[in-house]
Write a structure and sequence with these properties.
The structure holds two protein chains of two kinds.
Chain A: H1 3-10, H2 17-26, H3 28-32, H4 38-47, H5 49-54, H6 57-60, H7 66-70, H8 77-90, H9 102-109, E1 135-138, H10 142-148, H11 156-169, H12 185-189, H13 193-209, E2 214-217, H14 220-234, E3 240-243, H15 244-250, E4 262-267, H16 271-275, H17 280-288, E5 292-295, H18 317-332, E6 337-340, H19 343-352, E7 364-367, H20 368-374
Parallel strand pairs in A: 1-2, 2-3, 4-5, 4-6, 6-7
Chain B: H1 3-16, H2 26-30, H3 37-45, H4 49-59, H5 63-69, H6 73-77, H7 89-103, E1 118-122, H8 126-137, E2 141-145, H9 154-157, H10 166-177, E3 182-184, H11 195-201, E4 204-207, E5 213-214, H12 232-241, E6 250-254, H13 258-269, E7 274-278, H14 290-299, E8 302-304, E9 307-315, E10 318-332, E11 338-342, E12 348-351, E13 354-357, E14 361-362, E15 396-398, H15 401-404, H16 409-428, H17 492-499, H18 513-517, E16 557-558, E17 561-562, H19 567-576, E18 578-582, E19 587-591, E20 595-597, H20 607-611, E21 617-621, E22 627-631, H21 641-645, E23 651-653, H22 658-666, E24 680-685, H23 686-692, E25 700-704, H24 712-720, E26 725-730, H25 732-735, H26 741-758, E27 766-770, H27 776-793
Parallel strand pairs in B: 1-2, 1-4, 2-3, 4-15, 6-7, 6-13, 7-8, 24-25, 24-26, 26-27
Antiparallel strand pairs in B: 5-14, 9-10, 10-11, 10-12, 16-17, 18-19, 20-23, 21-22
Helix pairs in contact in B: 3-4, 3-17, 4-7, 5-7, 7-17, 8-16, 12-13, 13-14, 24-26
The chains are: A alpha/beta, B alpha/beta.
Chain lengths: 378, 799
C-alpha cells in the first residue's frame, strides 16, 4: 500500500463513497472543468497513487473546503490534498506557479529576510506602539501584494491603514511589525513544509517577542494559518488570534458611521468563512453603516463559492470562468459593489474584470476594512 | 482534427470558392455602394469595432440609417445562406453605429485640403448629403438647400421612427455637417432663392430633391372627397413630428410598397381600429420588404390582394367607402412583374372612413421655375446621364429618386457618390478620377489593434450549421401602440458571435490594415489599379493580391541558436509549429520563435494585447463565455515581452522561453560554497550576445530573446536559488532589435526592486546594463567590485 492510499484510508475516503456523487455535483471546479472531479482524485488515490503525485489533479483542487460542508464533514478533500501535495513536492513534483513564481518565491525569501525595518507602512496621524504591547496587528504580505500588483483597484496597504485607523478609534494602539510578512499559508498548501516551518518559527518569534496577548489579523489566510496551522505546529499559543472584522464587530457600538446609500453584497473568503467560521461579523459591520442595503448572493455563507485560484498556482481559463460566474451572481443581486475581506479575492476578481473592452459585468469591488474606515464619522 | 479531413475541407473550400475566380465577395458585389462587407464583418468578429466602422464609413456615410432601413441585397447573395442562413449584415452595421453612439467616438475625417470652388446641392436627402459629404471631404465649399425644416428627405419624412429613430438620423447628418457643409433648412428653391440664382453663384449644382410628391390615384370621387382622403407624405411627416392624429377608425391603404406598409403600421399606432392594405397584384409581386410585411401582419394589418380602387364613395364630402374591382395577373410588363388585368363585373365595396393612397411618388419640379434647359421625361423625372449624372445643362448634375424614381436608401447614397464623383471630375478637369466613397479610403487604419487576425485563417472544418443571431424585438402587441424602435439591436457579444459565422469567401479584403502596422513597410497592399510598390517583393506579386507572408525570411532556431533556413522550410515550420530536421550529424527540432498560447491556461485578461508593440496578440471570444489570446504568427517578432506579464504562464516561447530558463536556473547551485565569491545570474539578450560575449565568462548565463521578456518571478527565483545579484544585459536603446527592450525590462523590474527593499536587500542587486557601456565581462566585473565595496559600507543583508 502506498503512502497516498494510506492517507486516503486515514481520511476515511473509502467509506465515504456514497458522498462522492454529491460532492462531484457541488465542487465548484468540477462544475466548470469537465476534466476535474473529486471522484477522480479518489480513484487515483485508490488505484494509481503515483499518477496522483505526478499529475495535475492535486494542484487543480482549490482546497476551498466546500467538500467538508456538502458531505457534512465526511470527505475533507482539502486537507487530504494538502498532505498529498507535500508528498508530491518531496518526490520532486511541483505545481504550475502563476506570475512566473513571483508570489511563492517572495514568501520563501521571507525566511531569508533581514531584521525589522521601517518602510513607512503606518505613519502619523495613525498611532502604533513601538516595541511591546498587548495588541499586535498582523499586516501580512500587504506591501508585497501592492508591489507585485501595482495597477489594481484595491491596495492592500490601504486596507492595513484602514484597520489601524479603526483600531485607533476603538482606543487600541497595536504593535505593527513592518514591513509585514506572509504567514506561510501558501507554502504550507503547496507542499513546501520546510519553508513553512522556517517562516512560522520566525513569525512566532516575532509575535511572542512583542509580548502581545491579542493578535489581530486582516488577511483571512493569515488568520487561518496563525489561528489553526500554527496551533497544530506549535501546540497552544500564548496569545489569542482574532480577525479584524470580529474585533470591529464586537465594538460596533463604539463606532459611528456616515450614511452611504448603496446596495452591497458580500463574498465570504474560504479561509475566513468555512475555514474559521466567521460569517456574521463582516455582515454586521456592513449593516452598521447607515444606508447600506446588504443583499446575499445565491451561494452564500458556508456555501459561498471560491474566488477561483489559490496559493498562486494553477490559474487557468476555468479559474476565470468560476470568477465570472461568481461575479455574475453578484451582478444578479443588483448590488453596486461586491465587498470582500480578502485581498487575494480582490486581486483575482479584478483580473476577471479585465480587459475593459470586453467587460460585461458592471460591478465594483470593495475591501471591507477600507470601506468601513472610509465611512467613519470624524 | 484528423489531417486528412482538414485537407479535404481545404480542397473543398478551394473548389467552392476558387479565390482567383472570385473578383469580389458576393456581398460586396451586391451592394450598390460596393461596401467592403467581408472586411468589416471580420473586424467585428475580432472585436475591432472602431476599425470596422471606419471600413463602413469609407463608402457609407450613414451606417446607423442603412443598418436599419437598407433592403440589404448583400444578405440575399451571402454564401453562408447556402449553408444555413445568411450573415445578419445589416444588423451588424447597425450594431457598429449604435456602438459608436454609445461610446461617442468621433468620426475620423482625415486631412482636408481646402479648395476655392463652391458647390450647391439641392435637397438634403441621402443622395444630396452623400454628395455634399464627398465634396466637402475633397475640400470644396458645399451649400445644401433644403425646403423642409428637417434634413434627411425621405429618411425624415417617409420612414416612421419605429424603423428609424430620429436621434440616429440627426447624429449621422450632424457628422456630415461637421465636415463644414452649410445646411440651409427652410429654403425652398424657387421660392426663397431661384434656381437661376443658384446656378450663377455656384460652380456646380447637384439636384437631389427626391420624388416626394404623392401621386394621385386618378379615380372617380377623388376630387370630391373633402374628409377622409389622406396624403401619405403629410401623414408620415406629421407622425415623425409627433403631431399626427388618428386618421380614422377603419382605414384603407392603397399600394404595395414600403411606404404603403409604413402608412398602415403608422395608422395602427395612431389608434385606428382596423387597417387594411389593398394591393392590385399578389403578395409575391409586392415591392415592400418581406420583413416589413411580416411585421405588419404580426401587428394586425389586414391584406387584400388583387384588387384595384375604381371609385371613392362619399356622403357630403365625407368618405364612407371605396369601390374596388378584382384583378387577375396576366403576362409580364416592362418592370418584369406580372401585369394586373381587371376582371369585368367583379366590383365590390369596402366601407372605410379614411383612405391613404400610397401608389407612387413623383418629382415636384416646380423649383426649376422658368429654366428651359432641364428636360423632363414623361414620367415627370429629371433626365440625367446614368453614368455621369450630368443633366443637359453644363455644371448641373442630378441623382437619386429625382432621376430614377423611388428607390432604396442605399441606391440614393450610391447616386450621391456618383454625382459627387462627376462634379469632382468636372471641377478638376480630370476625366479618369474615380471616387469610391471617400478620398482617403486607402489610408491604413490606425488606432487600437490595427491588424488582421482572423481573416488570414482558413477554418479547420466545414462550418457547423448555426442559425443567425437576431436582435431582440419589441413584443408585437406592445409595439402596436408605440413609436419606439421595434428592433433593439445586437449586443457586443452577439455581434461578435454573428460576425464569426462569416466564411470570408472571396479575395483579400483590401482593408489595408497590414500597411499601417508593417514596421519595415514591406507588407504592402497592391490593389489592381495601383503600381506594385514593394521594392523587394514586387516581382512576385500579382495585381490585387496581398502579401500575407512577410518577405523577410524569418529565422527559426536550432537549440538555442537562430539559423536561416530556406523560405519553403520556414513556411513548413510556420504552419506545423515545429518540424524535425537533421544536418547529417545531429538531429534538431526547428521551431519558430514566435510566441504560442496555451489556450487552457489563457484567461483572456488582455495584458499581452495591451502590451504587444506589434499588435500581434489579440484577445478573441471563443464562445461559451471563454476569451483567450490569439497570436498572429505573421506579425509576431518573438520579443517575448508578452510572456513577462502573463499571469498564468499561458503565453510562452518554444525557444528561450520558460522551459529554457527554468532548465538553466535549476542548473545553478543552491547556496554558495564557503569563501566563494558572490554569484551573479545574467539574463542576456540573444541579439546582444553576438557582439558582447568577449572574454571567458564564469557564472550563470541565461540567454533570452530580449531582456524585456524576463519575468519578475524569474529574477526573484534566481535570488531564492542563491544568486546575490541579477544582471539583465541587453543592447541599449540605440541598438535594441526591438527598440523597447530596456524600457520593458525597467518596468518589469520595478516590483522586483520594491520586493527586494521590503526584504531588506539592496535594490541595486538587480541591474540593467547594455553593450553601449562595455562588454558583458566588464559589466560583470564592475558588479563584483561594487558589491565588494558595498559589503563594507551598507547594512544590506548577505544571502
Amino acid at each position: 500500500m502506498t503512502e497516498v492510499t494510506r492517507l486516503a484510508r486515514r481520511y476515511g475516503f473509502f467509506q465515504s463513497v456514497p458522498f462522492i456523487e454529491k460532492l462531484n455535483r457541488a465542487c465548484p471546479l468540477a462544475r466548470v472543468n469537465g476534466e476535474f472531479s473529486p471522484e477522480r482524485i479518489l480513484q487515483k488515490a485508490q488505484q494509481n497513487a503515483e499518477l496522483l503525485l505526478s499529475g495535475s489533479l492535486i494542484w487543480e483542487c482549490l482546497a476551498c473546503g466546500l467538500c467538508r460542508v456538502v458531505t457534512k464533514g465526511n470527505l475533507d478533500m482539502s486537507s487530504f490534498v494538502r498532505e498529498v501535495r507535500a508528498l508530491a513536492v518531496a518526490r520532486g513534483f511541483f505545481p504550475r506557479e502563476t506570475h512566473g513564481g513571483m508570489m511563492l518565491t517572495m514568501q520563501k525569501m521571507g525566511v531569508l529576510r533581514n531584521s525589522i525595518q521601517r518602510v513607512g507602512l503606518i505613519e502619523k496621524p495613525l498611532r502604533i506602539r513601538r516595541g511591546r504591547g498587548t495588541y499586535l496587528y498582523w499586516a501580512g504580505g500587504a506591501l508585497f501584494y501592492d508591489a507585485a500588483f501595482p495597477g489594481l483597484g484595491i491596495r492592500a496597504s490601504d486596507s492595513v491603514r484602514a484597520a489601524v485607523l479603526l483600531l485607533n478609534k476603538l482606543g487600541v494602539e497595536p504593535v505593527v511589525p513592518e514591513p509585514g510578512w506572509f504567514s506561510g499559508h501558501d507554502l504550507l498548501w503547496t507542499g513546501d513544509l520546510h519553508g513553512f516551518h522556517e517562516l512560522a518559527r520566525r513569525n512566532m518569534e516575532q509575535i511572542e517577542g512583542s509580548g502581545a496577548q491579542v493578535v489581530i489579523v486582516s488577511s483571512p489566510e493569515d488568520y487561518y494559518t496563525i489561528g489553526k496551522s500554527y496551533t497544530e505546529l506549535f501546540g497552544n499559543l500564548t496569545f489569542r488570534v482574532i480577525h479584524i472584522s470580529e474585533f470591529i464587530a464586537q465594538h460596533l457600538s463604539e463606532l459611528s458611521f456616515r450614511e452611504r446609500r448603496i446596495r452591497l453584497t458580500y463574498q465570504d473568503p474560504c479561509r475566513l468563512g468555512r475555514g474559521m467560521g466567521v460569517y456574521d461579523p463582516p455582515r454586521d459591520i456592513l449593516t452598521a453603516i447607515p444606508g447600506v442595503e446588504l443583499v446575499e448572493m445565491r451561494d452564500t455563507k458556508q456555501y459561498s463559492q471560491c474566488c477561483g485560484t489559490s496559493c498562486w498556482t494553477n490559474c487557468t481559463r476555468f479559474s476565470k470562468l468560476m470568477q465570472v460566474n461568481r461575479l455574475q451572481e453578484a451582478v444578479e443581486t443588483q448590488a453596486a459593489a461586491l465587498v470582500t475581506a480578502c485581498w487575494e479575492c480582490a486581486i483575482h476578481f479584478s483580473c476577471a474584470l479585465r480587459p475593459e473592452a470586453w467587460r460585461q459585468l458592471d460591478i465594483e469591488l470593495y475591501d471591507l476594512t477600507t470601506l468601513a474606515a472610509s465611512q467613519l464619522l470624524e | 482534427m484528423v489531417k486528412r479531413e482538414r485537407q479535404l475541407w481545404v480542397e473543398a473550400l478551394n473548389e467552392a470558392f476558387p479565390l482567383k475566380r472570385i473578383e469580389e465577395s458576393p456581398c460586396s458585389a451586391a451592394c450598390p455602394l460596393g461596401t467592403n462587407v467581408k472586411s468589416y464583418v471580420s473586424l467585428i468578429a475580432a472585436g475591432r469595432f472602431e476599425d470596422a466602422l471606419e471600413i463602413v464609413r469609407r463608402t457609407n456615410p450613414f451606417p446607423g440609417i442603412c443598418g436599419r432601413v437598407c433592403p440589404h441585397p448583400c444578405e440575399d447573395r451571402c454564401l453562408r445562406g447556402e449553408i444555413d442562413e445568411p450573415i445578419a449584415i445589416a444588423a451588424l452595421k447597425r450594431f457598429l453605429a449604435d456602438y459608436e453612439l454609445r461610446r461617442g467616438v468621433i468620426p475620423r475625417n482625415g486631412d482636408i485640403t481646402l479648395q476655392r470652388e463652391k458647390v450647391a446641392v439641392i435637397g438634403a436627402g441621402p443622395a444630396g448629403l452623400t454628395c455634399a459629404q464627398d465634396l466637402a471631404r475633397a475640400g470644396f465649399r458645399v451649400t445644401v438647400f433644403e425646403s423642409r425644416p428637417e434634413p434627411g428627405g425621405m429618411l425624415a419624412y417617409g420612414i416612421p421612427p419605429y424603423r428609424l429613430p430620429r436621434d440616429i438620423l440627426r447624429t449621422e447628418i450632424a457628422a456630415v455637417q461637421a465636415l463644414g457643409v452649410d445646411l440651409r433648412l427652410n429654403t425652398p428653391v424657387g421660392v426663397r432663392i431661384s434656381f437661376e440664382e443658384i446656378k450663377s453663384s455656384f460652380r456646380a449644382v447637384c439636384i437631389a430633391t427626391g420624388a416626394m410628391k404623392a401621386k394621385k390615384m386618378g379615380i372617380e370621387g377623388e376630387q370630391q372627397v373633402k374628409e377622409g382622403l389622406l396624403n401619405w407624405v403629410s401623414l408620415l411627416y406629421e407622425t415623425a413630428a409627433g403631431r399626427a392624429e388618428k386618421p380614422g377608425e377603419n382605414v384603407l391603404v392603397i399600394g404595395g410598397g414600403n411606404t404603403a406598409v409604413d402608412c398602415a403600421r403608422v395608422a395602427l399606432r395612431l389608434g385606428s381600429k382596423q387597417v387594411r392594405l389593398v394591393y392590385r397584384r399578389s403578395r409575391v409581386q409586392m415591392p415592400a420588404y418581406e420583413e416589413e410585411l411580416e411585421d405588419a401582419e404580426a401587428e394586425g394589418v389586414h391584406f387584400t390582394y388583387l384588387a384595384s380602387p375604381v371609385r371613392l364613395i362619399h356622403k357630403d364630402g365625407r368618405l364612407t367607402g371605396a369601390e374596388f374591382v378584382r384583378m387577375r395577373l396576366a403576362g409580364k410588363d416592362e418592370s418584369g412583374r406580372r401585369r394586373p388585368v381587371e376582371i369585368p363585373g367583379s366590383g365590390f365595396v369596402i366601407p372605410c372612413d379614411a383612405i391613404i393612397p400610397a401608389v407612387g411618388q413623383e418629382l415636384d419640379s416646380s423649383f426649376i421655375g422658368g429654366s428651359p434647359l432641364l428636360i423632363n421625361r414623361d414620367g415627370g423625372l429629371l433626365l440625367a446621364d446614368p453614368q455621369t449624372m450630368a443633366t443637359s445643362v453644363k455644371g448641373v448634375f442630378a441623382g437619386g429618386d429625382a432621376v430614377h424614381g423611388p428607390g432604396s436608401v442605399v441606391e440614393a447614397i450610391a447616386a450621391g457618390h456618383r454625382a459627387a464623383n462627376s462634379i469632382l471630375n468636372f471641377l478638376t478637369d480630370r476625366g479618369s478620377f474615380r471616387m469610391d466613397g471617400s478620398h482617403a479610403s486607402k489610408a491604413p487604419l490606425s488606432g487600437r489593434g490595427s491588424h488582421i487576425v482572423r481573416e488570414l485563417f482558413i477554418p479547420d472544418a466545414p462550418p457547423e450549421r448555426v442559425r443567425r443571431l437576431s436582435a431582440p424585438r419589441l413584443d408585437r402587441i406592445a409595439r402596436r401602440r408605440t413609436f419606439d424602435e421595434v428592433d433593439t439591436g445586437l449586443t457586443e457579444l452577439r455581434a461578435v458571435e454573428e460576425a464569426s459565422r462569416c466564411i470570408r469567401c472571396g479575395p483579400c479584403e483590401e482593408c489595408s490594415s497590414c500597411v499601417g502596422v508593417c514596421e519595415k513597410k514591406q507588407l504592402l497592399l497592391v490593389p489592381s489599379e495601383w503600381e506594385a510598390i514593394s521594392h523587394k517583393a514586387s516581382a512576385s506579386l500579382l495585381p490585387g493580391s496581398l502579401i500575407t507572408e512577410s518577405p523577410l525570411p524569418r529565422k527559426p532556431m536550432v537549440g538555442s541558436k537562430i539559423i536561416r533556413v530556406p523560405l519553403a522550410l520556414h513556411r513548413r515550420v510556420a504552419s506545423h509549429g515545429s518540424v524535425p530536421a537533421t544536418d547529417g550529424a545531429a538531429r534538431y527540432t526547428l521551431s519558430s520563435f514566435t510566441v504560442k498560447v496555451n489556450e487552457l491556461l489563457c484567461r483572456g485578461c488582455g495584458l499581452c494585447e495591451e502590451l504587444c508593440e506589434y499588435k500581434a496578440v489579440q484577445v478573441v471570444y471563443r464562445g461559451d463565455g471563454v476569451f483567450s489570446a490569439l497570436v498572429n504568427e505573421d506579425m509576431c517578432r518573438g520579443c517575448g515581452a508578452c510572456r513577462s506579464v502573463c499571469p498564468t504562464g499561458a503565453i510562452d516561447q518554444d525557444c528561450f522561453g520558460e522551459k529554457d530558463i527554468s532548465r538553466l536556473m535549476d542548473g545553478q547551485r543552491r547556496g554558495k560554497k564557503k569563501g566563494a565569491v558572490d554569484r551573479l545570474v545574467t539574463f542576456i539578450c540573444r541579439w546582444a550576445s553576438g557582439v558582447s560575449l568577449s572574454g571567458r565568462i564564469s557564472g550563470d548565463l541565461i540567454k533570452v530573446m530580449c531582456i524585456g521578456s524576463v519575468m519578475p518571478g524569474e529574477v526573484l527565483k534566481a535570488f531564492e536559488k542563491g544568486a546575490s545579484g541579477v544582471l539583465l544585459f541587453g543592447c541599449g536603446e540605440e541598438g535594441c532589435h526591438y527598440g523597447f527592450g530596456r524600457a520593458r525590462a525597467e518596468k518589469n523590474m520595478r516590483p522586483v526592486r520594491e520586493i527586494l527593499t521590503l526584504l531588506g536587500l539592496d535594490e541595486h542587486r538587480v541591474r540593467i546594463l547594455d553593450g553601449s557601456t562595455g562588454s558583458l565581462k566588464e559589466a560583470r566585473d564592475s558588479f563584483f567590485s561594487e558589491r565588494a565595496k558595498d559589503e563594507h559600507t551598507s547594512s544590506d543583508a548577505r544571502i
